[in-house]
Write a structure and sequence with these properties.
Layout: E1 2-12, E2 15-18, E3 21-25, H1 28-31, H2 59-77, E4 86-90, H3 96-109, H4 116-119, H5 125-135, E5 141-144, H6 150-164, E6 169-176, H7 180-190, E7 197-206, E8 216-218, E9 229-232, H8 238-249, E10 256-262, E11 268-275
Parallel strand pairs: 4-5, 4-6
Antiparallel strand pairs: 1-2, 1-7, 1-8, 2-3, 6-7, 8-9, 9-11, 10-11
Helix pairs in contact: 2-5
Length: 295
């Protein structure tokens, strides 16, 4: 049995990129925006025909749904015949930006200025619900928030669910949607440099014989561990694909990092993913053992 990565996508201030496709930069209008680029996301950024509900979503949900679509599309284009049953999402800040946008007018002008549309997005699991609704995922889903290690924990929990047979395919990764106010709050609390970004992998359980052309996640079967895990390179993915995966895992503000391990010939052999205790000393506060939720 192996847990393999069949597709993936990332979205950040540079643009959008998939595991099997090159980076597509934002157009000049988005790139030069004086505000938070994530606040101006449009449905056509991700979809040829955007979902009818996309325009009403908050930024956190738009980023999650859009990245999920790109990851699913990437896996299908790469030949995967499976479709995720659920999603495990990790986020340090969750929907805090939306919470502030909702509550600020209430504080300034009174309760009659509360926005009912924004109120419906003031829980982080709403973003996961939007993904499940749009892509018809009827299996297990959850949002994990355990500090700067949240995205790493999401991958480990997804690995546990797949290993235990709770699901055969899942989306898993991390999403952060922040503006200047939320970023400042985060720096003040834990000195973490959190930026708007998202990455999601399509993970699949494959029993032997599994496809040798897919990168394999090793370790992390039962609980969240500071030792992290490794992703073994596949022949088909090659160095370019491993570099893209490395970029997905090393976006700013994550409490973990990935090291590209290369063989004697200079080819990438694996990525070692682990908590970055040197860069983020505050992560020691978040090393609570997280059961895989399979029990």
């Amino acid at each position: 049995m192996a847990i393999v990565i069949t597709g993936g996508a990332k979205v950040d201030k540079a643009g959008v990129e998939t595991l099997h496709g090159a980076l597509i930069p934002w157009d000049s209008k988005v790139a030069s925006s004086s505000g938070s680029w994530v606040s101006g996301l449009k449905g056509r950024t991700f979809f040829d025909t955007p979902p009818a509900r996309f325009g009403r979503m908050d930024a956190f949900s738009k980023l999650t749904v859009g990245c999920a679509h790109l990851a699913l599309k990437d896996a299908a284009a790469a030949g995967s015949e499976s479709f995720p049953e659920g999603i495990v999402l990790g986020s340090l800040m969750g929907c805090l930006m939306t919470d502030i946008q909702y509550y600020a007018p209430v504080c300034d002008k009174g309760p009659e200025h509360a926005g009912p549309l924004l109120f419906s997005y003031t829980l982080p699991n709403v973003a996961v619900g939007e993904v499940c609704r749009e892509f018809r995922l009827f299996g297990p889903n959850t949002v994990i928030s355990c500090g700067e290690d949240s995205a790493l924990a999401a991958l480990v929990v997804a690995h546990g669910w797949l290993s235990s047979g709770r699901a055969s395919a899942l989306l898993a990764g991390g999403v952060e949607a922040v503006d200047s106010r939320v970023a400042e709050l985060c720096r003040g609390d834990s000195n973490a440099d959190i930026r708007s970004s998202a990455f999601l992998f399509q993970l699949e359980r494959q029993d032997e014989p599994w496809q040798p052309g897919l990168p394999t996640i090793l370790g992390g079967e039962s609980e969240f561990s500071p030792s992290g895990f490794s992703i073994e390179r596949s022949v088909d993915l090659g160095n370019t694909g491993m570099e893209r995966m490395w970029h997905m895992l090393n976006m700013g503000g994550r409490g973990f990092r990935a090291i590209d391990v290369r063989d004697k010939e200079g080819y990438s052999s694996s990525l070692k993913v682990f908590i970055d205790t040197e860069k983020h000393g505050s992560t020691t506060r978040h090393r609570t053992q997280i059961k895989s939720a399979a029990d």
